[in-house]
Design goal:
The two termini are 25 Å apart. Helix content is 25%, strand content 18%. The chain is globular. Strand 6 and strand 7 (118-124) form a beta hairpin. A seven-stranded antiparallel β-sheet has the order 7-6-17-16-15-14-13, sandwiched between helices. It has helices at residues 19-22, 49-52, 81-86, 99-105, 139-153, 180-184, 202-209, 225-231, 247-260, 264-273, 302-313, 326-332, and strands spanning 3-6, 9-12, 62-65, 88-90, 96-98, 108-115, 118-124, 134-135, 282-285, 298-300, 317-318, 321-322, 346-348, 351-353, 361-365, 369-374, 379-385. It has twelve helices and 17 strands. By secondary structure, it is of the alpha+beta class.
Length: 396
């Protein structure tokens, strides 16, 4: 079995981690040592993650994001796979790779590239196929952020109002004196740790408290996502820096749900999946009360993720119809100079924003998932991956 060294640890490599070769969940029932289950709490371990991220609806409670009726919108094709596979580059260690080799090195499950709206490259690996929804994790944030920004520009939501104007349930919690805009841009001061290497960090306790991961025997903490949010306390001053705290997305989306009277799943259907004429239903992980995890709970087919990216590249226009104001994208691309989590990027409406010559902005998630929009190059790239190292910044 092939292994790769990363940050002093050994991991199974991209070829050897293929879940079909490892026989995860094959057979009825699967072999005794080959099941993947929610209760085991190992679904994100390096050996199982490449199966589980393509099969989340078999592991936890979900709600559907319906694509609606009618045929899916067509993606024109101009295949350039041979040219792209042959591209070479030098990595940080000085080694040369082809593009095709790099896909295995990064545990890519699927990648799709659009140029001027046409598919020039598409391929799938492991358990993923074109019709299978894959866990988006924090790419969910950008879907939620864009919907929220749309309601702001339409006058449905006032992002300068305090969070408690929409969510009085959060009086006394960290967001009591935060504005909705500060939440949208991750500019809140919270007692929340996002260190993936620390298994006691908030990034791990949060999904357990919300019911997304199994709870230990004798657990007596919050039973729902909203109850967890009420327990989060303030640390520092809001609005002084960009501090990436995933719980902000759930506060933002909860406010959007309260204002519109619709759930996140319903809003995704009405504002994105149906008008984009997506190919497949998506789905969202939900807690015991049926509240969806807007911070990381979406699973979607790769082609439907890239439809969303192309909509952003075209400033809200899809097939000649304006689905949301162009000003939403223009404002999202505004760079601010506040001190930030990632020195190379700003953060706006749940998107990473760069200052590169291609005008790029990015939706990024753990395990190597990316949706990159490059307006000046007329390019959109969507990639699903299941790298054994979760931390998003290491998978570029």
């Amino acid at each position: 079995m092939g292994v790769v060294e990363l940050n002093g640890a050994s991991y199974i490599n991209g070829l050897s981690s293929d879940p079909r070769e490892l026989s995860w969940m094959q057979g009825v029932p699967p072999l005794a040592d080959k099941p993947v289950s929610f209760e085991s709490d190992k679904l994100l371990d390096s050996h199982q993650v490449r199966w589980s991220l393509s099969q989340m609806r078999e592991l936890t409670a979900i709600v559907n994001v319906r694509r609606g009726l009618g045929s899916p919108s067509q993606l024109e094709r101009q295949d350039r796979s041979d040219e792209i596979d042959a591209l070479t580059f030098i990595d940080k260690r000085g080694y040369e790779h082809t593009f095709a080799e790099a896909l295995f090195d990064t545990h890519t499950d699927g990648i799709l590239v659009l140029h001027r709206g046409r598919v020039v490259y598409e391929c799938y690996f492991g358990a993923l196929e074109a019709h299978i929804p894959h866990a988006c994790h924090s790419m969910t944030k950008s879907h939620a952020g864009t919907l929220t920004a749309s309601f702001v520009h339409e006058g449905v939501l006032d992002n300068q109002k305090p969070v408690v104007a929409y969510l009085p349930q959060l009086r006394g919690a960290a967001w009591e004196d935060a504005t909705h805009r500060q939440v949208m841009d991750m500019q809140t001061g919270l007692t929340y740790s996002a260190e993936y290497a620390d298994k006691h960090a908030s990034i791990w306790t949060y999904p357990r408290d919300s019911g997304w991961r199994p709870r230990p025997h004798g657990y007596d903490g919050p039973q729902t996502l909203c109850n967890f949010l009420k327990t989060t306390s303030k640390k520092g001053v809001h609005g002084q820096e960009v501090a990436y705290k995933t719980v902000n997305t759930d506060v933002m989306t909860w406010g959007m749900e309260r204002v519109t009277g619709r759930s996140f799943a319903q809003l995704l259907h009405k504002r994105l999946w149906a008008p984009l004429a997506c190919e497949e239903d998506g789905y969202l992980v939900v807690d015991l009360a049926g509240k969806s995890m807007a911070c990381s709970g979406l699973s979607a087919a790769l082609r439907d993720v890239i439809r969303f990216g192309e909509l952003m590249r075209c400033e809200g226009v899809w097939r000649g119809k304006q689905l949301f104001p162009a000003s939403v994208v223009c404002e999202t691309r505004q760079y601010n100079d506040l001190p930030k989590f990632n020195a190379d990027c700003s953060y706006r409406s749940m998107w990473w924003v760069s200052r590169d010559e291609l005008g790029g902005f990015l939706s990024a998630a753990i395990h190597g998932k990316r949706l990159m929009v490059l307006p000046e190059a007329d390019v959109v790239i969507a990639r699903f991956a299941s790298h054994p190292v979760a931390s998003a910044e290491r998978m570029s």
